[in-house]
């Protein structure tokens, strides 16, 4: 049996007629960059999140970058985030001219550890970007409380958390802005690059709309220096079709996680992802902690089970951030996660028999005597 890491073909097959029609509609409308379909998607995505405004942009990276720009963050400022994230979170900070300051994560959920946050705050700190990693929000209340006390903005990196909830309210609606990516493999994916920012603040929404469209107040009148960060109409049309299915897909991901949890419960060597009491996890990924991770990854691939690593090198250890001079041991929890976590296949269409095959394969690999020798 072959189990892919994600299966976009299976994901899109039942939607094909609706997607074809949506693309044809855009062709007929002749609006391609921004326009009415983008505005419709923005309205529907804002409603889905339960926020007042959504601003469609070109990617999740742009959503983060423009959020920070709109909050006035620039050279000399510091923005706090976590080291175990996709590079984009830190890139957005750097592209404003600000400096990323990292705070380690808690060892159970791998999200920003609020207890470590106060020590990272300096007079230059302007904002905090908690990352809702793997489909589960960070513990937002203590983070928001600390932010309020110090007058800091919170920008939620919700790029892996479409539809996830914290204490019954959606990810992305707690901070000044929530940033989403619609990269094809995300829980809600476009047919190319796209992203969105949600906010309840009308001034911030207007600033973001201006920033993503060359700072235009009206056509060819530019009140500020912005950027071309508009959402494509084709992406918006595809996203409108797919958004209607997102709640069901998230429910299926949760059901798949329960199957894994059930089938793996007795394996002492394996640590499973945990849903926090405050959270509704949407399992963008299903990372487990296994001994000899790299060997297990290779052995699973040989048996036809494709896994991933999220992420093999923490941001502070990337050559791109060499200049921050943060050595090994700076953030031990994030560094251990990079060494030990293995993401199992996880997508809504994963079948019971596929999940069973993943677990049987993993069991056979972990039971091998040679593995025990390597481990000891
Ligand atoms: C995907 C992702 C991004 C970047 O989104 P793009 O649409 O690829 O630019 C940022 N942060 C996290 C945590 C992500 O997973």
The domain tally reads 2
Provide mean pLDDT, rounded: 96
Proportion of helical residues: 25-40%
Question: Distance between the terminal alpha carbons, to the nearest Å?
Answer: 31 Å
CATH homologous group name of the largest domain: Type I PLP-dependent aspartate aminotransferase-like (Major domain)
Strands side by side in the biggest sheet:
1-9-8-5-4-2-3
Structural class: alpha/beta
What is the oligomeric state here?
Answer: single chain
Summarize the structure.
The protein is α/β, with parallel strands linked by helices and 376 residues long. The protein contains 13 helices and 14 strands.
Would you give an account of this structure?
By secondary structure, the protein is an alpha/beta fold. It folds into two domains: 8-243, Aspartate Aminotransferase, domain 2; 246-375, Aspartate Aminotransferase, domain 1 (Alpha-Beta Complex). Helix content is 39%, strand content 14%. The protein contains 13 helices and 14 strands. It has helices at residues 8-12, 16-29, 36-49, 60-70, 88-95, 140-150, 202-211, 233-243, 246-264, 293-302, 332-340, 352-367, 369-375, and strands spanning 53-57, 78-81, 99-102, 125-128, 153-157, 165-166, 169-170, 177-181, 195-199, 216-218, 221-222, 279-280, 286-289, 341-344. Strands 1-9-8-5-4-2-3 form a seven-stranded mixed beta sheet, sandwiched between helices. The chain has a three-stranded antiparallel beta sheet with strand order 7-6-12, with no helix packed on it. A two-stranded antiparallel sheet has the order 10-11. Helix 5 links the parallel strand 2 (78-81) and strand 3 (99-102). Helix 4 (60-70) runs parallel beside helix 5 and helix 9 packs parallel to helix 12 (352-367). The longest helix has 19 residues, at 246-264. It is globular and about 70 Å long. The mean pLDDT is 96. Bound molecules: pyridoxal-5'-phosphate. Pyridoxal-5'-phosphate is lined by residues 59-61, 85-86, 88-89, 131, 157, 159-160, 181, 183, 195.
């Amino acid at each position: 049996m072959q189990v892919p890491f994600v299966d976009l073909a299976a994901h899109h097959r039942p939607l094909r007629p609706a997607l074809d029609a949506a693309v044809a509609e855009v062709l007929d409308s002749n609006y391609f960059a921004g326009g009415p379909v983008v505005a419709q998607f923005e309205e529907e995505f804002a409603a889905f999140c339960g926020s007042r405004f959504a601003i469609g942009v070109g990617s999740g990276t742009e959503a983060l970058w423009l959020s920070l720009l709109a909050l006035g963050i620039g050279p000399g400022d510091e923005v706090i985030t976590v080291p175990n994230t996709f590079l984009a979170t830190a890139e957005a900070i750097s592209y404003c001219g600000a400096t990323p300051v990292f705070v380690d994560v808690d060892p159970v959920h791998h999200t920003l550890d609020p207890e470590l946050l106060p020590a990272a705050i300096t007079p230059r700190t302007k904002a905090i970007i908690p990352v809702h990693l793997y489909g589960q929000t960070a513990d937002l209340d203590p983070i928001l409380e600390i932010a309020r006390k110090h007058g800091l903005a919170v920008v939620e990196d919700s790029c892996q958390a479409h539809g996830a909830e914290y204490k019954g309210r959606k990810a992305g609606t707690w901070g000044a802005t929530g940033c989403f990516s619609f990269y094809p493999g995300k829980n809600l994916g476009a047919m190319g690059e796209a992203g969105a920012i949600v906010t309840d603040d009308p001034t911030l929404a207007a600033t973001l709309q201006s920033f993503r469209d060359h700072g235009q107040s009206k056509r060819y009148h530019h009140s500020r220096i912005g950027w071309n960060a508009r959402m494509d109409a084709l992406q918006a049309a595809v996203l409108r079709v797919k958004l209607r299915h997102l709640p069901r897909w998230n429910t299926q991901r949760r059901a798949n996680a329960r199957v894994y949890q059930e089938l793996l419960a007795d394996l002492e060597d394996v640590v499973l992802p945990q849903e926090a009491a405050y959270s509704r996890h949407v399992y963008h990924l299903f990372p487990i902690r296994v001994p000899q991770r790299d060997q297990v990854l290779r052995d699973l691939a040989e048996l036809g089970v494709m896994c991933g690593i999220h992420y093999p090198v923490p941001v502070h250890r990337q050559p791109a951030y060499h200049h921050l001079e943060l050595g090994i041991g700076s953030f031990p929890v994030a560094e251990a996660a990079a060494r030990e976590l293995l993401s199992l296949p996880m997508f809504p269409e994963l079948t019971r028999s596929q999940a069973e095959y993943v677990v049987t394969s993993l069991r056979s690999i972990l039971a091998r005597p040679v593995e025990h020798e390597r481990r000891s």
